[in-house]
Amino acid sequence: MVRAAVLPAVGSPLEIADIDLPEPGPGQVRVKLAAAGVCHSDLSLTNGTMRVPVPAVLGHEGAGTVVSVGEGVTHVAPGDGVVLNWAPACGKCHACSLGEVWLCADALTGAGSVYARRSDDGSDLHPGLNVAAFAEETVVAANCVLRAPEGVPLTDAALLGCAVLTGYGAVHHSARVREGETVAVFGVGGVGLATLQAARIAGASKIIAVDVSPEKEELARRAGATDYVVASETTAREIRGLTGKQGVDVAVECVGRAVTIRTAWESTRRGGRTTVVGIGGKDQQVTFNALELFHFGRTLSGCVYGNSDPAKDLPVLAEHIRAGRLDLSALVTEHIALDGIPAAFDNMVAGKGGRALVVF
Predict the structure, then answer these.
(1) C-alpha distances in angstroms, 36 versus 163, 206, 335?
(2) How remote is the C-alpha of 142 from its chain's centroid?
(3) Interval 75-98: pLDDT, tens
(4) CB 299 within 8 Å of CB 251
(5) Spatial distance between the Cα atoms of 161 and 152, rounded to a whole number of angstroms
(6) I want to staple 192 with a disulfide (CB 3.0 to 4.6 A). Which of 52, 55, 216, 254 is the partner?
(7) Inter-residue contact 125 to 116 (CB < 8 Å)
(8) 3-class SS at 186?
C-alpha cells in the first residue's frame, strides 16, 4: 500500500488514502516519488475546468527513483532517477508527424485507464494526467519517464516536469524572445516565475512582472523581473509607460482569465507577440474587433506545455541549471506533505506564493 491524494469526484475535496498499486506490467515503470509540484492544472481538474476520469490520483509534475520495470523496458532501470512526463507523444499522429509533439492527439489516453485501487473499498482509480504524482509511489507507462539530469537533485528536478518546461518553452519556443527585446509576464506563480527566468536567459532588456499581489514583487525580482506592476485597470497603460509608450515586444499570460489575456494583448506593441499559457474555462470569453486586429498587427498564440519536446529540452534546461542561469529554488515558496495540498490550492486561489512542492 502507498499513500496518495485521491479526487473522488469533480468538486469534491481531496482525500488522503491508502491505495494498492500493481507491479509494473509490460511497458510500465514503478517510481518512488521524491517530490511533486502542486500546479494550477491540478486545481483545474478538481473544479472541472479540465476533465479527466474520476476517481483519480492527481499530480503531474514530479520526479523520483525507479523501483522496478516491466517487460520490454530498457531505457531506465531500478535505481535510476527520473522525471515524469505527463504528456508523452505517441510519435504516430498528425501532430507528431509534423514535429509538434506537444499537440499529440493521444498524449492523454493513459488518463482513462485504471492503474490502481483504493485499499479501503477496492474501487478503481485513474492516473489523473497519466502519472498520478500525488502519491508515495506510482506506476506509469514507460514513455512517461525520462532520465533525470545529472547533478540536479530529484526534489528540484520535479519542477522540470511542468512549470519549467512550460515557462521556458513559452519564451524560447512559442514567443521566441530575442536578445534585447522587452517582455511582460502576467501571473507570478510557478509557471510565471519560470517564465521570468527564461526571459532573463533569453537576454530580454526589460522584464516586467504583473500580479494582483504586491507581496510577490520580491519573488519576481529574484526570478529576473526588472520592473513590477500590481495588476489594475491601468496595467496596460503602466506597461506602455515603462516601454517608451510602445508596449512590450512580448507578453506572456500565465493566468488563464479573459481580462488578463485582454490586458496582455493591450500591453503588446504593434507587431509584437502575445502568448497565452494560462488555462481558462469555457466561460472566459475574449473579444477583439476587426479593426484592431488589422491596425496593431500583433500575433496572439496559445501555448501548450511550452510547445516543448521534453526529451530534447530537459538536457538544455539541465545545462542552464548547472551553469547557474536557472535557479529552481526560486520557484518554490513552501514544502508540504500530501495533506498540505488542499491548503496549497487555497493559496493559489488567493494569489499567494509561488510553487508548493510536496516532498516525500
Answers:
(1) 11, 32, 10
(2) 21
(3) 999 999 999 999 999 999 999 999
(4) no
(5) 13
(6) 254
(7) yes
(8) strand
